[in-house]
Amino acid sequence: MKIGFMGCGRMGEAMIQGMVASKKFKPSDIYVHTLTDERLKYIENTYGVLTRSSNALVAQEVDYIVIAVKPNAYLDVITEILPLLKKHQTIISITPSFTIEKLTLMTKGIPNIVRTIPNTPSMVGYGMTGMSFNEGLDPRIIDDVYSIFISFGACVKIDEKKLNILSTISGSSPAFIMTFMKSLMDYGINMGLTEEVAKTLTVQSFIGTGYMVQSSHLKLEELIDHVCSKGGSTIEGVEALKKIEIEKNIQHAIHQTTIKFDKMNK
Question: Does 145 appear as a known binding residue?
Answer without folding.
Answer: no
